[in-house]
Amino acid sequence: MSDRYEWLDERVDELVERYESGQSLRDIAAEFDVSTKPIRTRLRERDTDMRNGGRSYEQLETYANEMISQYANAGDDLQTIADRYETSVSAIEYYLANADIACEPPSPQRTDLGFTPGQLSIVRGELLGDGCLHRTEPGKCFFQLSTTTRSHAEWLIDRLPDQLFPDGQPNTATRSGGFGNKEYTSWTVSSRQQPVFDRMYENWYRECSGNNSKIVPEDFHLDRTALLHWYWGDGNCAIRDSGAPRVSLATHGFTERGVSRLQSEVERLGYDNYSIEQGNVENGSGEFIRLRDYDARRFLDDFRRRNQLPEYSYKFPVPRYEG
Predict the structure, then answer these.
(1) What is the dihedral of CA 300, 302, 307, 312, to 10 degrees?
(2) Domains and CATH numbers, the chain
(3) Which of the four, 16, 49, 172, 298, has the lowest number of CB atoms within 10 Å?
(4) CB proximity list for 235: less than 8 A, separation 6 or greater
(5) Distant-in-sequence, close-in-space partners of 284: CB < 8 Å, separation ≥ 6
(6) Angle formed at CA 83 by CA 75 and CA 99, multiple of 5 degrees
(7) Is residue 62 scored above 80 in pLDDT?
C-alpha cells in the first residue's frame, strides 16, 4: 500500500462509522480527497460488511418505514432495531433523521450506547475466549474480560462504545499462580449494563446447576474480527523442530456440537482444521481445534498483518519452510 495513504489508518474508525451510517464509498473518498480504493481496503481490513454496489443497502432501505415505526410507535430502542436488521445504530439514526424524528440521547443506565456490527464482533470474539457475560437479574447484564495483557484491556476500552466502561478501568490485581508461588498480574474491564448484552446472554448461555454454562449459538457467524479476538484470548502457535507451525484454538469448554459449529465457521473463512481430544476435562467436550499445517501458515500470514498489539506478536511467529 502506498505510503501516502498511511494517514488514513489513524481515521479508520471514522471511515467505518461513515460507511455504516449510509455514506457511499464515493462520498467518503471525496471528503478525504482520495480514490475509493484506499477507503475500500481499510473497510475490508476492519471486516466491514460491504454493500457491493448498493444491493444490501437498498434492501435495508426497503425496511425504512418499518424501522421508523418500530422506534416511533412500538418504542423499540435503537440497538434492538439495529440488531434485528444486522446493521449499525448510526444507520437507524440516518433513516430517523431523514424522517425528521429526533433520537433521544443514549443513557448508559437505561439503553444501549450504540454498537456497530464490528464492535459486536469484538464482543463475540472475546466470548469465544476469556470474555464472559454476567447477568445479575433478567434485564441486567454486563460484559467482563480479565487478561494478563494490559494493552488488550485498553484496546477494548478504546474500540468499544464511549462510556461503556466506567472511568478508572482497567482494574488490576496480583494473584498467585496455579503452580508454585509465581505471581501474575491480571487486568480486568467490566462494562456498564447494556440491553444488548442481556439479549446476547439468551443465546450464549444455558442454565445448569451452579453457574450457567457458556455455549456457541446455533446461528453463530464467525468473521475475521471475532476470529482475531478469539485467537488473542484462547489461541496459540507452537513451532516444531521442522519449522512447521501448529496453530490451535481452545474450545474444550464448549459442547461437541458447539465445537463442530466453530470448526465449520473456521473452515468457511478458509482454514482447514480438525479437532483433538484433551484429557481431564470435566465440563465440556474436551476437544480443541487445530489448523492443518498448510492453512496454519496462511492464517499466521493473514492475521500477523491484522494484529495491532505488539504484546501478542509471539502468537504470530514466522515459521521456517522446510528446504
Answers:
(1) 0
(2) 3-98 (no CATH), 117-214 (3.10.28.10), 224-315 (3.10.28.10)
(3) 172
(4) 129, 247, 248, 249, 250, 315
(5) 252, 253, 254, 255
(6) 50
(7) yes
Cβ neighbors of 73 (< 8 A, separation 6 or more) are none
Residue 147 predicted with pLDDT over 80: yes
For residue 58, name the pLDDT band (cuts at 50, 70, 90): low
State the cell numbers at 200: 446476547
Amino acid letter, residue 305:
R
Cβ–Cβ under 8 Å, residues 43 and 16: yes
How far, in Å, CA of 215 to CA of 205, rounded? 5
What is the rounded average pLDDT of the residues 92-109?
A: 77
Residues 273, 290 contacting (CB under 8 angstroms)? yes
53 has a pLDDT exceeding 80: no
Among candidates 269, 300, 42, 308, which has minimal Cα distance to 159? Answer: 308
For the chain, what is the mean pLDDT? 84
Which residue in 309, 269, 275, 303 sits closest to 289, CA to CA?
275
Q: How far apart are CA 318 and CA 323, in angstroms?
A: 15
State residue 92's pLDDT score: 84
At residue 9 the predicted structure's pLDDT band, cuts being 50, 70 and 90, is confident
Residue in 253, 235, 217 with CA at minimum distance from that of residue 303: 235
Instruction: Summarize pLDDT for 17-28 with one digit per residue, the tens.
Output: 778 767 778 888
Contact in structure between 112 and 78 (CB atoms under 8 Å)? yes
Per residue in 192-230, pLDDT tens?
Answer: 999 889 989 999 998 776 667 899 999 898 988 899 999
